Amino acid sequence: MPKKKGKKAAERRRENGAVTVPSKPDAKVRDYDAHVLVCKGGDCKKRGSKDVHRALKDEVRAAGMNRDVRIDSVECLGLCKHGPNAIVYPSGTWYLGLIDADAPEIVEGHLKNGEPVEHLAAELRPRKKRR
C-alpha cells in the first residue's frame, strides 16, 4: 500500500486496522537488583562473548541470584576491538575484553557485593562539556 503523504504513522496504522495497545498500569514487571548486557556483535562473538554470557548466567544461577540479576545479550555495545564487552546496570560499569573465567569474580564482587571489579572494569573518561 503506498504511503499517504501528510499523514502521521499512527493515523496510517489506524486506517489499516492496526491497533495500538495502551500501556497497562497493572502489568507486573520484575524488578532486578542488577542488569548485565553482554555484547554479541560480530567481533565480540568471534572472541567468545557467547562463552562469557553462558558463564555469567551459570555463576548467577549457582549463587542463587537468578531472581535478582538479569543477564541479556545485545547486538552491539560498541568498542568492538576491545571485546567481548559487558555493561552492568544500575552502576553503568563497563567491562572490556572479558573471558569466561572472569565471570565468578564479576558475580561475587560486583553483582553480589555491589563493588565493581576494579582490575576488570574499564576506566571511564570524563565527559566533554558541550558548548
CATH architecture of the domain at 34-112: 3-Layer(aba) Sandwich
CATH topology category name of the domain at 34-112: Glutaredoxin
Work out the strand percent: 5-15%
Q: Using the CA coordinates, give the radius of gyration.
A: 20 Å
Please give the order of strands in the largest beta sheet: 2-1-3-4
**Unreliable runs, pLDDT <50, ≥5 residues?**
none
CATH superfamily of the domain at 34-112: Glutaredoxin
Output the helix-strand order. HEHHEEEH
Distance between the termini: 45 Å
Structural class: alpha+beta
Describe it for me?
The protein is an alpha+beta fold and 131 residues long. It has a domain at 34-112: Glutaredoxin (3-Layer(aba) Sandwich), CATH 3.40.30. It is 27% helix and 15% strand. It has 4 helices and 4 strands; from the N terminus they run H-E-H-H-E-E-E-H. It has helices at residues 9-15, 42-46, 49-62, 103-112, and strands at 34-39, 69-74, 86-89, 93-95. A 4-stranded mixed sheet has the order 2-1-3-4, with helices on one face. Helix 3 (49-62) crosses helix 4. The protein is globular, with a radius of gyration of 20 Å. The model has no long low-confidence stretch (mean pLDDT 85).
